[in-house]
Amino acid sequence: PTRSVWATEGGVADLPCNLTSPLLADPALLVLWYKDGISKPIYSYDMRNSPASHWRNPSHFDTRANFHTASLRLQRVHGGDEGTYRCRVDFKTNPTLTYTTNLTVIVPPRRLEIYTDLGVFTRSVVGPFTEGDTLRLTCRARGGSPP
Predict the structure, then answer these.
(1) 107-119 burial code (b ≥16 CB/10 A, e <16)
(2) Phi/psi at 79 (nearest 5 deg)?
């Protein structure tokens, strides 16, 4: 099943990958990350030689990605990071396993506007009102994702 991960723009996203083989004493040797629409790996963690090595596709993540505790950790997430990622794990003995994660990036609204019940845009102060009056305000968010 596909896992869902949500991250806020500018924040951190951890895309999980299970490195546990169904066979006992069968270590993971190579982890490759792919993103839908990109045919070549965007990140790899190679444990075939000591010490383990990291590789990043420089045109995709630059230095924002690291493999951290069985997850691909993305720093300073932005809208272009949103999509479906596949983690491919090669083991010493067990056949390759693949895991899928869907990353949704939450982009905060760029502008918030407050309106009175008469549809009048309020800049900073609402009122004055008499005690017992009914106050109805509407907040409209502009931009952002999801809306």
Answers:
(1) beeeeeeeeeeee
(2) -55, -35
The pLDDT tens digits of the residues spanning 29-61 come to 999 999 998 999 999 999 999 899 999 988 888
* 122 vs 72: CA distance, rounded Å: 44
Who's near 47: CB < 8 A, 6+ residues apart?
A: 27, 28, 29, 30, 31
Per this entry, what is the length of the chain? 147
- What tokens does 85 get? 């990622």
CA 58 to CA 64: how far, in whole Å? 10
- As a whole number of angstroms, the distance between CA 141 and CA 108 comes to 9
Q: What is the pTM of this model?
A: 0.80
Secondary structure of residue 81 in the 3-state scheme: helix
Assigned token pair, 10 = 């500018």
53 phi, psi to nearest 5 deg = -125, 150
